[in-house]
TrEMBL record:
Organism, as annotated: Senna tora
Signal peptide: 1-24
Top-level taxon in the UniProt lineage: Eukaryota
Protein name: non-specific serine/threonine protein kinase
One Pfam assignment: PK_Tyr_Ser-Thr
Main localization category: membrane
GO terms under cellular component: membrane
The keyword Cytoplasm belongs to this UniProt entry's keyword annotation: no
UniProt keywords, alphabetically: ATP-binding, Kinase, Leucine-rich repeat, Membrane, Nucleotide-binding, Phosphoprotein, Receptor, Repeat, Serine/threonine-protein kinase, Signal, Transferase, Transmembrane, Transmembrane helix
Record membrane topology: Single-pass membrane protein
Amino acid sequence: MESRLLLIFSLPYILLLLSCLSSAQKPGFVSLDCGGKEKFSDELGLDWSPDDKLTYGETSTISVANETRKQYTTLRHFPADSRKYCYTLDVVSRTRYLLRASFLYGNFDNNNVYPKFDLSFGATHWCTIVISDANTIEMRELIFLATSSKVNVCLSNATTGQPFISTLELRQFNGSVYYTQFEEQFYLSVSARINFGAESDAPIRYPDDPFDRIWESDSVKKANYLVDVAVGTEKISTNLPVDVNSDEMPPVKVMQTAVVGTNGSLTYRLNLDGFPGTGWAFTYFAEIEDLGPEESRKFRLVLPGQPDISKAVVNIEENAQGKYRLYEPGFTNLSLPFVLSFRFGKTSDSSRGPLVNALEINKYLEKNDGSVDGAAISEVISHYSADWAQEGGDPCLPVPWSWVHCSSDPQPRLVSILLSSKNLTGNVPLDITKLTGLVELWLDGNMLTGSIPDFTGCMDLKIIHLENNRLTGEIPSSLANLPNLRELYVQNNMLSGTVPSGLQSKDLVLNYSGNINLHKGSSKKSHMFVIIGSSIGAAVLLIATIASCLLASSKNDAPAEVAHCFSFSEIENATNNFEKKIGAGGFGVVYYGVLKDGKEIAVKVLINNSYQGKREFSNEVTLLSRIHHRNLVQLLGYCREEGSSMLIYEFMHNGTLKEHLYGPLTHGRSINWIKRLEIAEDSAKGIEYLHTGCVPAVIHRDLKSSNILLDRQMRAKVSDFGLSKLAVDGVSHVSSIVRGTVGYLDPEYYISQQLTDKSDVYSFGVILLELISGQEAISNESFGANCRNIVQWAKLHIESGDIQGIIDPSLRSDYDLQSMWKIAEKALMCVQPHGHMRPSISEVLKEIQDAISIERATETIREGNSDEMSRQSIHSSMNMGSMDLGGTENYLSIDESISQPTAR
Ligand SMILES: *[C@@H]1O[C@H](CO)[C@@H](O)[C@H](O)[C@H]1NC(C)=O
Ligand SMILES: *[C@@H]1O[C@H](CO)[C@@H](O)[C@H](O)[C@H]1NC(C)=O
Ligand SMILES: *[C@@H]1O[C@H](CO)[C@@H](O)[C@H](O)[C@H]1NC(C)=O
Ligand SMILES: *[C@@H]1O[C@H](CO)[C@@H](O)[C@H](O)[C@H]1NC(C)=O
Ligand SMILES: *[C@@H]1O[C@H](CO)[C@@H](O)[C@H](O)[C@H]1NC(C)=O
Ligand SMILES: *[C@@H]1O[C@H](CO)[C@@H](O)[C@H](O)[C@H]1NC(C)=O
Ligand SMILES: *[C@@H]1O[C@H](CO)[C@@H](O)[C@H](O)[C@H]1NC(C)=O
Ligand SMILES: *[C@H]1O[C@@H](CO)[C@@H](O)[C@@H](O)[C@@H]1NC(C)=O
């Protein structure tokens, strides 16, 4: 066993600092109250501040029984998308810190779905947070040596629920506390820090521990934690001071209590977070019992499978050179399992059983150095203050920023920069030319000035977009030396001089029109393709507008990312020669199919062939297939052969919302109100992702109840997004054709042809009215004389206070009127004539979620009268439904259960 002698080096330093530490708040302590609104001091004397500088995420207030600490009454949560959300903290370089993050779910989203997501520290995956109880705080700690002046903590990869965080704390160590010889390559992730023989369940921390380490009480009965305690284990304690030498060691209060194995053994089994792996493990002993002159306490540590460790004999008093003094044997590199069983056993010549005061185990967590281009890209973003430049963390890991694509190397490279139309001013940042792995550069549509820099360092560049800026000077002839350059767009700038002949003789798409002082110059025409018009330009523009919500790596870089191209025969076979038609809509007929691997698919055969050219089509489809969200129907691939174009989607078992509201599938009984609210919530989440998870937003343009599909669990996904764009024929400009479905179409968009996200909100308002009323959006009979339109009809009733007049009679009275009103009022806001008067989809989503919690609260009361069976089934559908992951076969839907006779 080796002792820690390192503190000797820190002593002079300690003495020097002594006089300047008098302020109330410990220097080097940062305590962020996530979602908090104001600064405050807690009862320990720690100063908390809100995380209100963060521009991402939303805040929530929660209330958990017996948790009164202010920092646990708020939290911040983030969308469940494929981005990362980062906190940036200031630190002092070459200093060690304890970083602590904590998570108290408290059912903040009224979803009762326990979130699961990843936490990373810079580019290093730190841990996965799995919430398993709404009222229990999950806590993770990391010890690190700062190597620069900032560190990042990021949440990402929501597998269930929404990522959230309650607190984030930094505690600065001084001197060589927690130095390890591996610290350049490894962090220490804290797995256990236990105070044995504790007098209460409360942990010991600041101010007893000057670094605010949390020494957990061994009396807390956590599941799977500290079990297998041997018979005869007893607590002991003393009031006498224990000499612990320095504050690197456990605080005196921790050392004043211990457990003793009165029958000769101390045995424990505990689960070690983060293990198996190699770790740092120390035990802390102090003799705090008075032994008689003839008595002795000698024991050994026994670790299963590690016989060598059992050789050393501990005699605390001898090892510590006295009573009430600390002895701290440990291992700086020990291999440990997840379930650690250990035993201290007395030697045969010892009169007393073993004693232990405290224990500390940390796991070595290997650092990931992150992307190669980190330094260069930080220089680039340091020129800008917009949100995209503040995403934080590593540019590529664990997921890339929203506007870059990265290679998939262990140390990734930036391969695409997608900064079209971001209002960039000033020169093209020179540091971009240091991104030597760059393949695509999109800087078009900004206000960039100055000249085009020399890209000689970026030999992989294939596509350069600099058009529609204010660039001056000549086109550098060095561009001709880029061996892979295939597309160069510099039109509509203020460039001058002549087009370098090297570029003119290259096999290249080159557009330099709209530069008044730029001349073609003399050259022999060879393979040059000059595009002055905009036919390909328009198609490329389409790609640019949705490119930046794509989080996967560049299409040029990773061919595996290209949308799957199915062969016609494969589709022919899967659909059994287009046998089973399952739907038809504005874009074409949909067929059912089963792939060879058993996966069920829906094949949409697009109606006409006014679609873009083959390459643009497959590019567009590739982009659509990369949009992933649990409430968006996944595009699996496409097929373009035999003169037809097809899109292949995941198959949704329960058809469209339309069919369930008033189609033949209802069989006279339709879905109940809570289910309708859940469908509204799911759809709103999908739309919210299109509007806010993609930059710039993707506007659906054709939302309607037949575009909301239902899976086996009756959870909803939005389909057909992006198709309006796909159908734009090559030549015409994107926004020149109004597209949409009568009854759902935003009247303002129809008149002005200006498409905004509020057009989708209008359509969604119509869907909400359908959910309330069970009526179609347009009907010749239902709405009375002179009225064909659900909006006019509903408005008339709701505004005169007669909500009953529009509620679907098949809902009987199984709904809460308050939740119904909430939705009705919001629906009317959504269908306001002017876009600026309509709420955002996120606001609508909030309202739906409020209505759901109202409905669930009253449902519980209503259930009081119904039988056990139906209560259970409603319950299970909520949990499973909102998890929405793998299909559970023995699912019992609400509809089935409420159609059962109940004991009302
Ligand atoms: C809260 O504390 C009270 C009193 O200490 C206790 O009776 C109750 O069980 C606690 N509730 C929870 C949920 O822990
Ligand atoms: C996201 O989490 C899931 C489950 O925890 C895991 O299987 C997957 O590898 C993670 N993805 C990434 C990109 O880390
Ligand atoms: C533990 O020791 C006590 C007395 O020291 C004895 O009575 C008891 O039987 C022992 N228990 C076991 C399991 O050895
Ligand atoms: C610990 O020891 C193992 C070999 O026993 C070695 O491979 C490893 O690099 C050491 N350090 C860490 C931090 O695991
Ligand atoms: C660019 O500036 C305009 C006008 O100031 C603003 O409306 C627009 O949102 C900005 N775009 C971006 C991407 O910041
Ligand atoms: C599909 O392929 C399988 C085997 O590859 C064949 O048995 C089956 O007849 C094919 N079906 C159609 C409709 O072509
Ligand atoms: C949903 O689909 C499943 C499987 O196809 C079916 O058993 C169930 O009845 C459907 N539910 C409704 C409400 O239609
Ligand atoms: C570290 O160095 C010495 C103290 O300065 C101790 O007395 C201690 O105060 C310093 N430790 C801390 C916690 O700041």
